[in-house]
Write a structure and sequence with these properties.
single chain; about 375 residues; mainly beta; Phage tail proteins - horseshoe like beta roll fold; Phage tail protein beta-alpha-beta fold; 6 helices
């Protein structure tokens, strides 16, 4: 029995209200989802067809005002904000580029909800501060504060209120004009910091709901990991190992004073390799404890050669696309000329890139994964 062709549907929506405005026949589409990042979308729309232009696609895809959803066989698998469009008269095609909903918060600054631009003359006099607040709750609060400003609500709502048990004390002075997106990523990059993901699902009324998912501190499925086996549902892979950016000593640079700069150092003397050094900059950080955490977190990511395997997997075989998400754990089984003895190891999904294809059978899914601790061959 022939497999039913996979159906992709592309919807435009109003960024502010969330209301779906239309469906567009996009092609040459690629979209990606990344853990603690925005992810991207690219696609093309033919305007030479009268059946397309009657929908007024120029208005439907207005950058900064339009949102875009991708549905695969009834399941929402991507959503984000249209940021750029480019029309070429020679071929009468509109190129559309979008980024996940996190990208909206890259265009927002961490300022109190009652901030009044008409009366504020000194940004140093305002701040957003958290004292002994759970780190997962700080993520939710930063998004909530941004959306509390007049005209700033794009209807992203927290999925849960679950806490991680890790309290933090943080302050974001208005004078730093830090973007909300940057503040969220810095929290995630702390040692033991919380994962976060802005995604979407259909609500009880059948309309897309934008949600903020926060880890405690990790996101990921509960129970048995997904399994991909080379030669079956895993059709190909790359195994890049990069030692050029390794370091056994990391300097974390904090606030710069008039005569000195706050510094914390993390070092690993057990690598068996000659000493190498690097630095990371967090010039807004004044808390030496948080700066030390950033140093240790950075060291953990560079103390060994970076191995970020990319897996090309079947979207139509279990686990099917849409049943897994970034943050999930998986088991990979490979036996080939690179691993002639055969290996089985655990990984964590950190990126998903999908190319639906323009015809049946062209669908491709590429996963970026990080090897599980102690499980990589």
């Amino acid at each position: 029995m022939a497999l039913r062709p996979t159906r992709y549907t592309y919807y435009t929506a109003d960024l502010s209200t969330g209301a779906i405005t239309d469906e567009l026949p996009l092609y040459d589409v690629t979209f990606s989802t990344e853990l603690n990042e925005a992810g991207e979308f690219r696609g093309r729309l033919p305007l030479g067809d009268r059946r397309v232009t009657v929908h007024h696609p120029r208005e439907l895809t207005e950058p900064g005002r339009a949102a875009l959803y991708v549905e695969r066989d009834g399941v929402l698998v991507w959503g984000g904000v249209v940021w750029t469009v480019k029309y070429t008269s020679a071929d009468q095609h509109l190129e559309i580029s979008a980024a996940g909903f996190l990208s909206y918060f890259d265009h927002r600054r961490v300022l109190p909800a009652d901030f009044d631009p008409a009366t504020t003359t000194d940004l140093g006099a305002v701040s957003v501060a958290f004292t002994d607040r759970d780190q997962s709750d700080i993520v939710r609060a930063l998004v909530a504060v941004a959306q509390a400003h007049p005209g700033g609500d794009i209807r992203v709502r927290p999925e849960t209120t679950t806490l991680s048990g890790t309290p933090l004390t943080l302050a974001y002075p208005g004078s730093s004009l830090k973007s909300t997106g940057e503040a969220l990523r810095e929290l995630a990059s702390l040692e033991g910091g919380p994962d976060f993901l802005l995604d979407m699902t259909y609500g009880p009324d059948g309309r897309p709901v934008r949600r903020l998912r926060v880890g405690t501190p990790r996101l990921g499925q509960q129970g048995t990991p997904h399994v991909w086996e080379y030669g079956a549902n895993l059709t190909g892979y790359t195994w890049p190992a990069d030692g050029a950016s390794t370091a056994s000593r990391v300097f974390a640079l904090g606030e710069q004073g008039e005569t000195s700069q706050l510094v914390r150092v993390a070092e690993d003397r057990s690598t068996g390799r000659p000493l190498t050094e690097t630095e990371v900059s967090y010039v807004h950080l004044t808390d030496p404890v948080l700066l030390a955490s950033q140093a240790r977190s950075a060291l953990a990511s560079v103390s060994a050669p970076v191995v970020l395997p990319e897996l090309t997997v079947r979207a139509d075989l279990e686990p099917v696309l849409g049943s897994y998400q970034v943050g999930d754990d998986a088991t990979v089984v490979i036996k080939d000329v690179f691993f002639p003895e055969g290996v089985q190891f655990d990984v964590r999904i950190t990126g998903i890139e999908v190319t639906p294809g323009n015809d049946a059978g062209e669908e491709q899914v590429q996963l970026t994964v990080t090897p599980g601790t102690g499980s990589t061959p």
